[in-house]
Amino acid sequence: MLSCYMGCFTSKPQKQLLGCENPVALAAQTSFTVSEVEALYELFKQISTSLTNDGFIHKEEFQLALFKNTKKDNFFADRLFEVFDVKGAGQLDFGEFVRGLSSFHPDSSEEEKID
To answer: Where would I find the EF-hand domain in this sequence (predicted)?
Structure first.
């Protein structure tokens, strides 16, 4: 798995994997450890390939992960997805996913939870 992360930041030209961000940088920006970020990447891959294998989590995949259902509109899932989707692209990349989850981490600051 580290090869995914290392491939994103080496000087050799390589195809960058979608959603691939440096786990050390993400851990420094969030309340997660590097190991937790790596585990979250595995979860991200599972969710992001549940309906569409494009390296992003779409709203339907997000709702499916939360409620095992994509057929009913769910205000809670919609709002939570909008909070995570800081770029407003209608899809979550890995960084948005980790940063969004970080606000629920018990060690995150009150400011991060409110922001």
So the answer is: 72-107
